[in-house]
Specification:
Chain lengths: ~325, ~325
């Protein structure tokens, strides 16, 4: 099956007074139709920017400096503004972290849904209204006819996020980019929203790119996961393999630092130091100053993604480069 | 072992009424939020009590009550056998404040951006006149920074030069400056990335082992709680619904809310648990449901739960406030 979304050698940079910062550096991945890809990483890894680049919502001065993004074979990163606007919502839906800022406080949720539906689909007012109510019901909002005329402030956080998901699905997009959709919510609500996102995307046949820092959410939701560090994908593979048999030392550290619910450890595995700032990304492998298994080659040469058993990892310890310095 | 901190029937009510003129014109009554309502617990010396709950359940209010940032509306806090409220009003207030310190959630907001790290960490030393002279102060600050895994040279930098995890370590160093016995930690790692969270949790555990610290650890993350706590209290709408030793709580959760919380955690090991999806959300604390406040979301609720508020019952070291558990229905 051809990929739904193809990202090739994506580079995003931010020109500043002190030089150009490279926030995303040579990132490539694809998403199959109906697949849920998780993108995980710590603050500053570039995961949200990758999502923003795909939906064409990079904040200036950030810009795509290289590479290409294809949706169903069509290149979308160089579309003119007007075409990109039509594509957003119609073919790619978006769900952001804070449901309150994604909704307009001055319009009822019904009006926002109808507007979105009529912008993208050839329906009249009454048909759009029916569709909007069906979407609200679909996303688990009780009494959708009554809720149709309510304003966002009359909804709780979890309910608002359901409305945002309904909005994202309004025009039956093929891909949903969800950027930390559950981070602002309480755990019990979080579980509801994840189950919902999974169910409605399956029913509507939409693929999802789920950006989050929460490995638990990834484990329960995704088919594959890409781990990002300092603007690059360091490991990508089926979610089960990445969690249980990580190849990259960063992924190993990340998994070990999560307190587990089913084992007792006196101390957590910790990765010393912190993610480098964009203006001070180390030469060679960006992870080398924090890596417990660093050797000479890591400090000078940058590894690319290579086969590492069931996953692909960017590390000199795996793949074709393995054994050279280990 | 004796309890270092003992809390009895603690309550805090906030008035959230509309302004006087609106109340008169619109004939609205006064309104109150019972943020904390009849809490009781004890923390053994050298151990950690964790309070968990969702936003708005009153856990941060408890933290602020314990360190004296809020005055309780009702109830008593005893510290080392003596009444903390009375001590705070007397000349011993300084002594008490020195013995308990607090670590806040947001390491970006809790450090003064215009002060150097030295001044931040030395502030409690100056305030309580704990060291004499600039040289001794510098040495002590260096020691404190060392205890949290930072370099003495970091003292001459500003907070913005540090990452979130390092800042949180600076606030731990500041809290340790007075050699407290009791630390109240209000979501100390929620603002941090997981790998950095691990660093901070490890440091907190090491310090507890070395210095015999007692912690009240407030968090919404059950996995973190499971890692740090000895005792766990689960809060819902200002009340403790269940309190038990950690192992017991995670192996045999009794209260339906505790079971729900445990079920809701996304698990990285995908142990294939059958999830019971829980419906509904936390009700508005301004207008909590009658009877057991959890009954609208509870799968085991009956007529009694809707009308009568359950009392906390203790058996086998576990304290639960639930009619269904009491009657043996679950």
């Amino acid at each position: 099956m051809p990929a739904l979304l193809e990202v090739r050698n994506l580079r995003v940079e931010f020109p500043t007074r002190h030089g150009t910062l490279l926030a995303i550096d040579d990132v490539s991945f694809e998403i199959a139709p109906g697949e849920i890809l998780g993108v995980v990483g710590e603050s500053g890894a570039g995961k949200s920017l990758t999502g923003a680049a795909i939906i064409g919502l990079l904040e200036p001065p950030g810009r795509i400096a290289g590479g290409e993004i294809r949706l169903e074979g069509q290149r979308i990163d160089d579309l003119p503004h007007e075409q990109l606007r039509r594509l957003r919502g119609r073919r790619i839906g978006a769900v952001f972290q804070d449901p309150l800022t994604s909704l307009n406080p001055l319009y009822t949720v019904g009006r926002q849904l109808v507007e979105t539906i009529r912008t993208h689909l050839p329906l009249d007012e009454a048909q759009a209204r029916d569709r909007a109510i069906a979407l609200l019901a679909d996303t688990g909002i009780p009494a959708p006819e009554a809720r149709f005329d309510h304003y966002p402030h009359q909804f709780s956080g979890g309910m608002r996020q359901r409305v945002v998901i309904a909005l994202a699905l309004a025009a039956e997009p093929k891909l949903i980019v969800a950027d930390e959709p559950t981070t602002a919510l309480d755990v019990s609500i979080q579980a509801q929203i994840i189950a919902l996102l999974k169910r409605v995307c399956r029913e509507h046949g939409a693929a999802v790119m789920l950006v989050t820092h929460d490995m638990g959410v990834i484990a329960e939701t995704c088919d594959r996961v890409a781990v990002m560090y300092a603007g690059r994908i360091v490991e990508v593979g089926p979610v089960h393999e990445v969690i249980h048999h990580p190849a990259h030392p960063y992924t190993v550290g990340l998994m070990g630092s999560i307190p587990a619910m089913d084992e007792d450890r006196e101390r957590l595995l910790q990765i010393d130091g912190a993610m480098p700032r964009l203006n001070a990304i180390p030469a060679g492998c960006a992870f080398n100053p924090r890596c417990p298994r660093v050797f000479e080659r890591c400090r000078s040469e940058r590894p690319d993604l290579a086969d590492a058993g069931p996953t692909r990892a960017a590390c000199w310890l795996v793949g074709a480069g393995a054994g050279v310095g280990a | 072992m004796t309890a270092l901190v003992e809390v009895q029937d603690l309550a805090k009510t906030f008035e959230v009424s509309a302004p006087w003129l609106n109340r008169v014109i619109e004939r609205k009554p006064r309104q109150f939020v019972h943020a904390v309502d009849g809490l009781g617990f004890a923390i053994e010396r050298g151990s950690t009590l964790a309070l968990v709950g969702e936003s708005g359940c009153g856990k941060s209010t408890v933290a602020r009550l314990l360190v004296g940032l809020y005055a309780p509306t009702r109830g008593r806090i005893r510290f080392d056998g003596r009444d903390a409220g009375a001590m705070l009003g007397s000349r011993e207030a300084g002594t008490l404040r020195r013995r308990m310190q607090m670590i806040f959630q947001d390491p970006y907001a809790s450090l003064n951006p215009r002060w150097k790290v030295h001044d931040i960490v030395a502030e409690p030393l100056r305030e309580h006149a704990l060291v004499d002279g600039a040289a001794a102060q510098r040495e002590r600050v260096g020691e404190l920074l060392g205890a949290v895994g930072m370099a003495a040279a970091d003292a001459s930098k500003f907070p913005h030069q540090f990452s979130g995890g390092q800042r949180q370590r600076i606030s731990i160093a500041r809290a340790l400056a007075t050699q407290p016995e009791f630390l109240v930690c209000d979501e100390p790692t929620s603002a941090l990335d997981v790998s950095v969270q691990a660093q901070v949790l490890n440091i907190m555990k090491d310090l507890q082992r070395k210095q015999g610290l007692t912690y009240l650890f407030i968090s919404h993350n059950l996995a973190v709680v499971r890692h740090v706590a000895d005792e766990v209290g689960v809060m819902y709408l200002g009340r403790l619904v269940e309190q038990s030793p950690k192992a017991e709580l995670f192996a045999r959760p009794r209260h339906p809310y505790t079971r729900m919380l445990l079920d809701a955690i996304p698990d990285i090991h995908m142990s294939g648990r059958a999830r019971t999806p829980v419906q509904g959300e936390v009700p508005n604390p301004l207008n909590p449901p009658a009877g057991c406040s959890f009954h609208p979301r509870c799968p085991h609720a009956n007529a009694r739960c809707r009308s009568e508020r359950p009392a906390q019952l203790e058996f086998q070291g576990v304290r639960v406030a639930c009619h269904a558990v009491e009657e043996g229905r679950i």
